[in-house]
Structure to design on (698 residues):
């Protein structure tokens, strides 16, 4: 039962002087296996000097002298021997030496037995038949399925009919490991077997309702030389004078360890016992007593799941893997009694957090996009289908009842699992009824709108409602008629404005030949627009509109000046929100810098930002430095260097400031800048200036 590579390794390592145990440790084998194989190798080569001649009969004409096996071999001088079954003869010139080999050995075995007889003398013979029976008996003791296992599987919610798939492999693996190193003897289970049948069937006789059998394992048949193989193993592992008891103990230990290993992999007795769970066949009589046991079993099942969360046995992992589940899903699947991987995947695809929500949501005649949608379909039903009222109906209530009847007739409400809810395709209608203007506000009739889902009327109604919701336009029949006449593309472009009138103002600013416009003039343009929208009463209201997108993408509004300034080249050159002094101090130089940035004018932004930097630097120089400000041409260079020391600029900032200085000089001298002026150049100057101002304030 060792591979060719393992046998070669045994020979090589033994030749290197390794002990049996050292060889076993290095190759991952049992010591007994190594000893047996070495003995087998030692004696496996037939004595090449012996030539057996097989005869059907033998009538000696000379003197016949009989010997015991060891004496025969001790006195043997010739290599040619004759055999008739168990008798062996040597012709010795006038006399014949003979011996009878002990059963179950035959004369044909003598070339292999001779080395053993020479080594062990009179004690060479051991009862190999008894040995083979012990191995066979030990094999049989393993291949028995404990009926209690089935009850344990059922207690853990495992289907025995599915568990049976793993039982044969577990038994075979365990058996091969337990009987590793043993010679192959007739009657023992074939260690090379790959299959074993397990039958789990319904049975009225079994308390669990099931019975199981293990069968179909292949048995080793007799083969030539098995007796010698057994003899070699026995001599390698047992004392020739005292071997029976150690043999039985060895077989008992092997089978005991195997059964313990199988039990560890197949049994959950310790887990069940620890939890206090009682098997159904142990339930007491009487409804009340059974109810108490069942109640305790619920607690026990919780304990079992907690233990499984700490460590999940391999059998359970394999069981659920066979069903199509990953290991990390097992506890969730068990907790929620999920029936299939498809159901688990459907739950995941639903995006729900709780499986109970998934169970609640499914099984209706329609599919819901999400649990939130399902809840809305339930909770918003009353908006479209109000409860009936007693007594005289008001005109408003009569209108509601009429709408409810119309809704009912159009299939907007469904009845499923005892619930009345909105069909998801019509959830939009409920939301409009709750959040958007009611159709009656527009002078419309529900019957006309919903006469046929998919009609242009329905589609335009939804489109128009979305526009009113997006813009906040006042809902009335006049505005609805105007919205209804517009194209889809036109409405989509108008949705970004608070009203169609505001869009008129946007167009005016965007197409204005001048960069500055008065707020008052824009108010007039807004109110005189023929597009629907509210009336603007003052500059504050106009400024509020202009201070939001999309207007902030093209202009900046100032209540202080009463003007709106359109950006020269699109959006501002950079974001000035983090520059507190620039943004918060209303000084001429700050206004000049902001104006240039808003106009996206890079040259002006850099020159005005540098002027602001120089003004702040001069102030700090005069306060903190004794040396007067130089008047030569290197004043700007000295200023940057001294500010870097005073304010502790990083080397990178100092380098960037010198570059900005050079670019500014290029601009004021009318030269082409040595590189393109970018927002980062202006940003560096503004950052340095803010740091200088911060130091001045401190």
């Amino acid at each position: 039962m060792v591979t060719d590579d393992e046998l070669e390794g045994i020979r090589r390592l033994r030749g290197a002087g390794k002990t049996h145990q050292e060889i076993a440790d290095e190759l991952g084998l049992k010591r007994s296996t190594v000893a047996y194989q070495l003995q087998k190798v030692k004696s496996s080569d037939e004595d090449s000097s012996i030539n057996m001649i097989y005869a059907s009969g033998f009538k000696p004409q000379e003197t016949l002298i009989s010997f015991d096996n060891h004496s025969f071999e001790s006195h043997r001088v010739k290599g040619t021997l004759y055999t008739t079954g168990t008798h062996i003869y040597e012709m010795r010139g006038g006399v014949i030496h003979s011996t009878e080999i002990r059963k179950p050995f035959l004369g044909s075995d003598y070339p292999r037995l001779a080395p053993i007889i020479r080594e062990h003398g009179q004690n060479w013979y051991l009862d190999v038949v008894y040995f083979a029976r012990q191995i066979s008996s030990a094999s049989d003791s393993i291949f028995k399925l404990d009926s209690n296992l089935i009850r344990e599987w059922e207690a853990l919610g495992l289907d025995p009919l599915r568990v049976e798939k793993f039982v044969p492999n577990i038994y075979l693996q365990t058996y091969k490991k337990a009987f590793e190193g043993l010679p192959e003897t007739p009657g023992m289970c074939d260690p090379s077997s790959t299959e074993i049948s397990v039958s789990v069937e319904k049975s009225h006789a079994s308390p669990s309702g099931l019975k199981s059998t293990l069968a179909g394992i292949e048995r080793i048949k007799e083969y030539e030389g098995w007796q010698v193989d057994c003899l070699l193993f026995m001599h390698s592992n047992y004392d020739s004078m005292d071997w029976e008891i150690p043999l039985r103990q060895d077989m008992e230990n092997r089978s005991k360890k195997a059964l313990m290993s199988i039990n560890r992999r197949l049994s959950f007795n310790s887990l069940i016992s620890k939890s206090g769970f009682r098997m159904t066949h142990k339930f007491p009589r009487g409804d009340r007593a059974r109810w108490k046991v069942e109640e305790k079993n619920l607690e026990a099942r919780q304990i079992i799941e907690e233990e499984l969360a700490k460590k999940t046995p391999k059998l359970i992992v394999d069981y659920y893997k066979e069903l199509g589940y990953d290991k990390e899903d097992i506890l969730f699947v068990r907790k929620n009694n999920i029936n299939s991987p498809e159901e688990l995947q459907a739950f995941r695809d639903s995006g729900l957090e709780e499986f109970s929500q998934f169970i609640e949501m499914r099984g209706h005649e329609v599919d819901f996009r999400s649990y939130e949608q399902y809840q809305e379909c339930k909770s918003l039903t009353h908006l479209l289908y109000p409860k009936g009222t007693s007594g005289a109906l008001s005109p408003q209530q009569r209108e509601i009842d009429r709408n409810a009847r119309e809704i009912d007739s159009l299939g907007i409400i469904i009845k499923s699992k005892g619930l009345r809810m909105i069909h998801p395709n019509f959830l939009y209608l409920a939301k409009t009824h709750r959040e958007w203007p009611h159709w009656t506000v527009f002078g419309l009739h529900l019957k006309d709108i919903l006469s046929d889902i998919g009609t242009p009327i329905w589609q335009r109604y939804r489109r128009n409602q979305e526009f009113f919701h997006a813009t906040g336009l006042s809902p009335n029949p006049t505005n609805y008629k105007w919205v209804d006449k517009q194209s889809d593309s036109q409405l989509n472009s108008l949705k970004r404005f608070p009203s169609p009138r505001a869009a008129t103002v946007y167009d005016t600013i965007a197409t204005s030949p001048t960069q500055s416009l008065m707020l008052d003039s824009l108010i007039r343009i807004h109110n005189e627009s023929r597009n629907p929208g509210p009336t603007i009463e003052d500059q504050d209201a106009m400024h509020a509109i202009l201070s939001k997108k999309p207007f902030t993408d093209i202009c900046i509004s100032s209540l202080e000046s009463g003007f709106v300034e359109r950006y020269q080249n699109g959006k501002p050159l950079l974001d000035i929100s983090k520059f507190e002094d620039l943004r918060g101090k209303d000084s001429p130089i700050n206004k000049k810098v902001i104006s240039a940035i808003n106009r996206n004018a890079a040259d002006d932004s850099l020159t005005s930002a540098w002027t602001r930097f120089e003004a702040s630097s001069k102030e700090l120089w005069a306060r903190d430095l004794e040396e007067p400000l130089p008047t030569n041409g290197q004043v700007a260079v000295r200023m940057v260097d001294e500010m870097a020391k005073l304010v502790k600029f990083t080397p990178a900032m100092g380098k960037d400031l010198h570059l900005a200085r050079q670019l500014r000089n290029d601009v004021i001298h009318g030269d082409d800048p040595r590189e393109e002026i970018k927002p980062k150049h202006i940003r560096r100057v503004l950052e340095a200036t803010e740091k200088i101002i911060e130091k001045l304030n401190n």
